[in-house]
Task: inverse folding
């Protein structure tokens, strides 16, 4: 029988492995998102390893962790800052099942966050709005979902994962005139990887970014299941 200390060491090793696997996925030369690569290269990607995306066990810890980033973020000088939560369990979810779990977790995070924080006034809380972004700690976040059964290769990671990117960073890139160059580079790299552009990709303000979070292709009749507190 495994001792308590041996069991704890196994958990620590699993946590390290899951985080290392995500870093290796992002470092792959074929991975298209140069922003994620920059965050990793600059040591500005922090990773939390949770348990199962179908469970709310880590929701409060994750909400507090993201709120701390929102509170510490310096919009004047910092770019390519991200936080990711990896869920090593539930690797056999379909695209639809993953999407359901993603919005369950984001709705739960919002409910916890709403106990202490208001929605970022710079983004909409209505997921059907072209100006929607998830708000945690009073700051808007763009969320990227990864999982093993994603139809887009750029989203096909071995564990269900949610990557949170501060929305202010995209606005700063626009102000500096760098956003379009970055966007075109990512699209070109994605086409090189998959053979076609991501049909869900849209600029903020031209369509709700909620439809992009899970990575699943949805039609114009899709209704976001996000629950606003």
Result:
């Amino acid at each position: 029988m495994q001792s308590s200390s041996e069991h704890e060491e196994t958990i620590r090793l699993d946590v390290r492995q899951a985080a290392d696997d995500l870093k290796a996925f992002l470092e792959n030369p074929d991975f298209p998102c140069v922003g994620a690569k920059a965050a990793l290269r600059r040591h500005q990607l922090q990773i939390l390893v949770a348990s199962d995306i179908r469970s709310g066990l880590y929701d409060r810890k994750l909400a507090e962790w993201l709120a701390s980033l929102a509170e510490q973020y310096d919009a004047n000088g910092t770019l390519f800052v991200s936080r990711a939560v990896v869920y090593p369990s539930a690797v056999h979810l379909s695209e639809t099942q993953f999407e359901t779990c993603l919005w369950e977790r984001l709705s739960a995070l919002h409910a916890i966050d709403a106990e202490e924080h208001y929605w970022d006034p710079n983004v909409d809380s209505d997921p059907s709005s072209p100006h929607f972004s998830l708000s945690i700690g009073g700051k808007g976040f763009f969320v990227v979902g990864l999982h093993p059964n994603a139809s887009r290769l750029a989203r096909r990671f071995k564990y269900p994962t949610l990557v949170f990117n501060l929305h202010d960073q995209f606005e700063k890139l626009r102000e500096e005139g760098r956003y379009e160059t970055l966007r075109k580079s990512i699209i070109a790299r994605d086409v090189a990887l998959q053979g076609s552009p991501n049909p869900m990709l849209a600029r903020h303000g031209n369509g709700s970014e909620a439809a992009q979070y899970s990575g699943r292709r949805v039609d114009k009749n899709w209704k976001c299941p996000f629950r606003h507190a």
